[in-house]
Structures are given as structure tokens and as C-alpha cells.
Design goal:
With about 140 residues, the chain is α+β, with helices and mostly antiparallel strands. The protein has one domain (about 1-140): Alpha-Beta Plaits (2-Layer Sandwich), CATH 3.30.70. The chain contains 5 helices and 5 strands, in the order E-H-E-E-H-E-E-H-H-H. It is globular, with a radius of gyration of 14 Å. The structure holds flavin mononucleotide. Flavin mononucleotide binds near residues 26, 39, 64, 69 and 91. Flavin mononucleotide binds next to helix 1, strand 3 and helix 2.
């Protein structure tokens, strides 16, 4: 099992509705190729975790990397793993913008990571706890 985490920034022309459409196609593709993971979307930034067989993850990432709908693509972490974090989701999706206030408070910590922490710009000991926390929240909320 192999996992890859990257971040990127949506192009201005990539509308929220188009992000949702892309997600639907992505889920079909991922399910077919036994790829799981999660995609976070916040203030036009993406943070995606892809997990699956190494070759398949690399192939998908090279498609994603050449996708003109986003830019500033940076790999944060690649890792060999024994278990998947998101074994139930072909691509859990989380749009931070669509939350009620109580959830926003709960997410303040993660927002800090997203906005100003170096933790997600380079691999760090905080990367895995971060995704564990995201997974715990996605269990209740992902679409
Ligand atoms: C932020 C982002 C995340 C994406 N995630 C996936 C994904 O998990 N799975 C997938 O099949 N396509 C994903 N895509 C779409 C691919 O980049 C690409 O459009 C898709 O593989 C279809 O390729 P094609 O248009 O050459 O047929 C993503 C695109 C973006 C911008």
C-alpha cells in the first residue's frame, strides 16, 4: 500500500460546481482502480490524500498533476503503508466552506494547519495525525 499527499490551488475558472462534477468522475475512476483517499477544499486550496497500489497512485497523480484546473501542485508526503486510512471512500470530499458554526469551531485547529502551518508544506510528524483527525471528522460529515 502506498499513499501520496499533495496540495494545490484551484484555477479561478474552476467553479465550485465543476469541482463537484470532477469529484463524481474521480470516484468512478478511483473505485475501478482500487484507489481511496480524501480531498479537502478550502479557500480555493486542495489537499488530497491518495492511497492504493504504488503504480496506480503514481499514474493517477501524473494525470492530476497535468490537470490545468489547478496550479502550484506540491507533494507533501509519500509513504509505504500497511493499511489504508480511508478504506471506505473512493474519494471522501470535504468542503470547509459549507459548515455550520459549531463545526467551524471544531475545525479551527485544522484550519490553522491549512492556512499558516509549515506542517503541511513539507512532510512532518504532524502530517499523519492531521489526516487521522480529518478522517475522524469525515466519518460524520463527508459526502
Ligand atoms: C484537485 C483535483 C483532484 C483530482 N482527483 C482525482 C481523483 O482522485 N481521481 C481521478 O480519477 N481524477 C481526479 N482528478 C481529475 C484528473 O486530474 C483528470 O481530470 C482525470 O484523471 C481524467 O483525465 P482525462 O480528463 O485526461 O480523462 C482530480 C483533479 C483535480 C483538479
Amino acid at each position: 500500500m502506498f499513499s501520496l499527499i499533495y496540495r494545490s490551488v484551484a484555477e479561478e475558472s474552476f467553479s465550485n460546481a465543476e469541482v463537484y462534477q470532477m469529484l463524481s468522475a474521480a470516484r468512478d475512476f478511483n473505485a475501478e482502480h482500487d484507489i481511496t483517499g480524501c480531498l479537502l477544499f478550502h479557500n480555493r486550496c486542495f489537499l488530497q490524500l491518495l492511497e492504493g497500489e504504488k503504480d496506480k497512485v503514481h499514474k493517477l497523480f501524473s494525470l492530476i498533476e497535468s490537470d490545468a484546473r489547478h496550479k502550484k501542485i506540491e507533494i507533501i508526503q509519500t509513504e509505504e503503508k500497511t493499511e489504508r486510512l480511508f478504506n471506505k471512500w473512493s474519494m471522501a470530499f470535504y468542503d470547509y466552506g459549507n459548515l455550520e458554526l459549531s463545526a467551524q469551531i471544531k475545525l479551527a485547529q485544522i484550519d490553522t494547519f491549512f492556512e499558516d502551518s509549515k506542517a503541511l508544506k513539507t512532510q512532518s510528524r504532524l502530517t499523519n495525525p492531521f489526516f487521522n483527525e480529518v478522517r475522524n471528522m469525515l466519518i460524520e460529515r463527508a459526502i
